[in-house]
Amino acid sequence: MTSFGRYASYGLIALFGVALLGLCLRSDPPKLAEGRFFSDGATYYSMTWSLVGDFDLEYTAGDLARVKREYPDGPSGIFLKRASGGFEFDGEAPWIRRVEPGENRIYFGKAMTYPVLAAPFVAAFGTRGFLVLNALCLLIAWGCAFGEIRTRSSDLKAAVVSFILICATIAPLYIFWIQPELLNLALVALALLAWRRDLPVASAILFGIAAYTKPTHILMAAPLGMAPL
User: Fold this and answer.
1) Residue 105: its pLDDT value, please?
2) Tens digits of per-residue pLDDT, 83-124?
3) What is the rounded (10 degree) CA torsion for 122, 125, 129, 132?
4) Dihedrals φ, ψ of 90, to 5°?
5) Does residue 85 contact residue 101 with C-beta atoms inside 8 Å?
6) What is the reported pLDDT for 73?
7) Fewer CB within 10 A of the terminal residue: the chain, N end or C end?
8) Distance between CA atoms of 28 and 124, rounded to whole angstroms?
9) Has residue 2 got a pLDDT over 90?
10) Distance between CA 189 and CA 183 in Å, rounded?
11) What does the chain look like in DSSP terms, one character per residue?
12) Taking Cα atoms as reference points, which of 185, 70, 188, 76 lies closest to residue 122?
């Protein structure tokens, strides 16, 4: 019975994962959004494509032209910030040059965690890559819940309970949003699992990345912060 439960639970997770990733690869994000493109989603989309196309996070006319390939009306609202000075990659050794203070530039104004992680998937699958990353993050969160619950329950029961906890909620709807909500869910789930496995450094790093991506997620680190007390 134990072996059956283990194989059944792994089969359930694998079947759901394959079906979910297949759905993502067959989806058309611009069509799903009905051409609406604004705010956070527009910023993360543009940042990721800028990394894929230009290997930077600077906002230029080329980024706007790239957006209009799939969203002809362009973004309705996008987060930007002005910067002066700093450093940039260069084509000659030492491959980094100092930007003069007078060289004002405009950069995207959101945390880079999601675009950096999404860039390889977008380079491989186009805009569908965002959905693939989101789906993988949901599966990671489910896997973390499953791994924790199975320490005090059977494999099959753990698979069902963790599925209800993570997937039988509003969370799967965020797969189709070009935003880091599911990434943050995966980061927090991994951080809590690391805390439960007595890996405080790994847990702190993961909570730190989640808080950098969205500052309010620092509240999720309460178990780690209170542990010494």
Assistant:
1) 82
2) 766 666 666 666 676 666 666 788 888 999 999 999 999 999
3) -150
4) -130, 160
5) yes
6) 78
7) C
8) 15
9) no
10) 10
11) -HHHHHHHHHHHHHHHHHHHHHHHHH--HHHHTTT--BHHHHHHHHHHHHHHHHSS-B--HHHHHHHTTT-TT--B---EEEEES-EEE-SSTTSEEEPPTT-EEEEE-S-SHHHHHHHHHHHHHTTHHHHHHHHHHHHHHHHHHHHHHTTSS-HHHHHHHHHHHHTSSSGGGGGGSSSSHHHHHHHHHHHHHHHHTT-HHHHHHHHHHHHHHSGGGGGGGHHHHHTT-
12) 70
Q: 44 near 110, Cβ under 8 Å?
A: yes
- Cis omega (within 30 of 0) for bond into 94: yes
**CA dist., res. 41 & res. 176, Å (int):** 11
Dist. CA 135–CA 141, nearest whole Å: 10
Q: Which residues contact 83 (CB under 8 A, 6 or more apart)?
A: 104, 105, 106, 107
Instruction: Kindly report, residue by residue over 122-169, the tens digit of the pLDDT.
Output: 999 999 999 999 999 999 999 999 999 999 888 888 988 999 999 889
Contacts of residue 99, Cβ cutoff 8 Å, sequence gap at least 6: 84, 85, 86, 87, 88, 105
Q: Which residue has the tokens 């005090």?
A: 152
User: For position 223, what pLDDT does the model report?
Assistant: 84
pLDDT at 1 > cutoff 50: no
Confidence check: pLDDT of 177 > 60: yes
For Cα atoms 141, 120, 69, give the angle at the middle one, nearest 5 degrees: 110
pTM value is 0.87
Looking at residues 207-211, what average pLDDT do you find?
Answer: 95
